[in-house]
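User: Sequence recovery, please. Input:
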């Protein structure tokens, strides 16, 4: 039995952010993840938007944490070598009634403390967003909105937490939780983990893990969102993140700039029951593009190079009534030592560093001694990506290491050196490599580079080809060897 001060269950962006924040202190910490790698749950399907806080109720917890997180993510990105880009967002109106809605959103944003929000008119839009539908007459402009790679954020947080002493266990699903007098036992396929405090950050499965501890006053219902990735040739289709007016359950179908260049359109918002349902549909595609063309008329399905669906964890009170669409972040007094961090849907990515601070405060107020370490390593060397540097620098790198000149993924210009570095940093699957480097993320979807990637993984790890997977057990690429 392994014993820790704190066990965090779930290595998505929230669990990773909490682990990194707690690693500042003299604590023994473990993070348990049921998947093969971090970021393979809800976080893998995130659009990467850093929201300013304009579309949250003025007195909501998620609104408060979104605004705080928007500020914090800048410092986190600088420390961890991540590419955060502040590009601003526009919520677009097409008639006078919709302008009234924009004014309401502006008032709520100002109550929350969102900086620099303002209404802009048709003339401003023509100059600053020329591809926008000419029928748009105004927009709410929030310049502090930004974009980041959601996967690389999770990996950076995890790497930094591990450097500061956190222990991570993947393929380690929490199967049962037993409460003893002053500690918990978390039973997993890899043994029992003993902890004084447990933080439940399991996304879609937060209700199931909570029930293991005896807390069952909420249920998580998945909300499916289909999204469609466009070719990089459309990278400059918009200059900002483009939003319609939000509905009660969704921010609507957006035109999304991404940190990697490919624009996205989506998502849909469909409440489902199956926590594994990540299917996409022709109906979803038609719906998204019909709505997207209202914002930018020339956007076309022919530009799609990939598509996916993600599931957002919506919390329902008592398993029936909506929990106000807000986050659930609370210390469970009936089960001392257990903290639920549940219902973290949008803007959870943005709010994650603020959520981490809130959880630390809860722990401190409930008796956990947070004594700062003499040495906390706050910085992480920025990973190098050929697609983001000029060719003059690439030439110098090749002179230093020939592996930089060995291009494995031609679509995204990814070298053998980047693949090897990704494996050294923790990638064990082809998706783990893709999320870290973008190899296989281009138009050919790995048609040319998959076999080479598998060969490099095998060489670097000693795994036979038959054990290399796309995203964990059950997704093996090669099932066996055929001999002539």
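Assistant: Recovered sequence (484 residues):
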């Amino acid at each position: 039995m392994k014993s820790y001060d704190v066990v965090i269950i779930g290595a998505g962006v929230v669990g990773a952010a909490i682990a990194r924040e707690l690693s500042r202190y003299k604590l023994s910490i473990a993070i348990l993840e049921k998947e093969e790698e971090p970021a393979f749950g809800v976080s893998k399907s995130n659009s990467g938007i850093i929201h300013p806080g304009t579309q949250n109720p003025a007195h909501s917890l998620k609104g408060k944490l979104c605004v705080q997180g928007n500020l914090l993510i800048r410092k986190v990105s600088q420390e961890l070598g991540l590419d955060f880009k502040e590009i601003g967002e526009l919520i677009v109106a097409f008639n006078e009634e919709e302008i009234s809605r924009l004014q309401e959103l502006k008032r709520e944003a100002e109550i929350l403390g969102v900086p620099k929000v303002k209404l802009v008119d048709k003339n401003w839009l023509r100059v600053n967003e020329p591809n926008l539908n000419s029928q748009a007459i105004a927009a709410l402009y929030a310049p502090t909105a930004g974009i980041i790679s959601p996967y690389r954020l999770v990996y950076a947080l995890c790497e930094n937490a591990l450097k500061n002493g956190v222990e991570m266990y993947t393929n380690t699903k929490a199967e049962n939780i037993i409460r003893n007098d002053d500690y918990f036992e978390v039973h997993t396929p890899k043994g029992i983990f003993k902890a004084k405090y447990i933080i439940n950050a399991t996304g879609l499965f937060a209700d199931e893990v909570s029930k293991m501890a005896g807390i069952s006053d909420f249920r998580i219902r998945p909300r499916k969102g289909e999204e469609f990735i466009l070719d990089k040739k459309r990278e400059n289709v918009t200059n900002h993140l483009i939003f319609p007016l939000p509905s009660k359950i969704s921010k609507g179908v957006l035109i999304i700039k991404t940190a990697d260049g490919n624009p996205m359109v989506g998502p849909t918002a469909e409440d489902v029951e199956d926590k594994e349902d990540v299917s996409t549909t022709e109906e979803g595609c038609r719906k998204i593009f019909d709505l997207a063309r209202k914002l930018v008329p020339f956007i076309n399905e022919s530009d799609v190079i990939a598509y996916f669906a993600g599931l957002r964890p919506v919390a329902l009170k008592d398993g029936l009534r909506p929990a106000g669409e807000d986050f659930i972040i609370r210390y469970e007094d009936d089960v001392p030592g257990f903290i639920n961090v549940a219902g973290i849907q949008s803007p959870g990515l943005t709010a994650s560093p603020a959520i981490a601070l809130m959880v630390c405060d809860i722990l401190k107020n409930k008796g956990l001694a947070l004594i700062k370490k003499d040495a906390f390593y706050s910085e992480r060397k920025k990973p190098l990506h050929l697609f983001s540097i000029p060719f003059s620098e690439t030439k110098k790198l090749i002179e230093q290491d020939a592996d930089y000149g060995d291009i494995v993924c031609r679509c995204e210009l990814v070298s053998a050196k980047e693949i090897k570095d990704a494996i050294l940093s923790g990638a064990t699957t082809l998706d783990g490599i893709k999320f870290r480097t973008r190899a296989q993320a281009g138009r050919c979807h790995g048609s040319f580079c998959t076999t080479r990637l598998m060969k490099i993984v095998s060489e670097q790890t000693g795994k036979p080809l038959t054990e290399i997977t796309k995203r964990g057990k059950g997704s093996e690429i090669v099932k066996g060897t055929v001999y002539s």
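The chain is about 30% helix and 20% strand.
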